[in-house]
Amino acid sequence: MESPCILVCSIDQKTGYCFGCGRTSVEIGAWLTMTPEQRRDVMADLPGRLETVERRPRRETRRARMARERDQSE
């Protein structure tokens, strides 16, 4: 199943969009139950949404946390 997730999972409080993929928390939660057409419709909106979010999340993202934990365990 195609997904726009890039493991930067943090929601911009101003727009309600994920910093990484541009989806809302409701869309993220419903992704697996959406039809392929619904997912394509959401994905078509994502580039425009990502232009409206701040470029840096206000808290540590999942990707950054995973990298930090990996570096600490080495």
From TrEMBL:
<feature type="region of interest" description="Disordered">
    <location>
        <begin position="50"/>
        <end position="74"/>
    </location>
</feature>
<protein>
    <submittedName>
        <fullName>DUF1289 domain-containing protein</fullName>
    </submittedName>
</protein>
<dbReference type="InterPro" id="IPR010710">
    <property type="entry name" value="DUF1289"/>
</dbReference>
<dbReference type="Pfam" id="PF06945">
    <property type="entry name" value="DUF1289"/>
</dbReference>
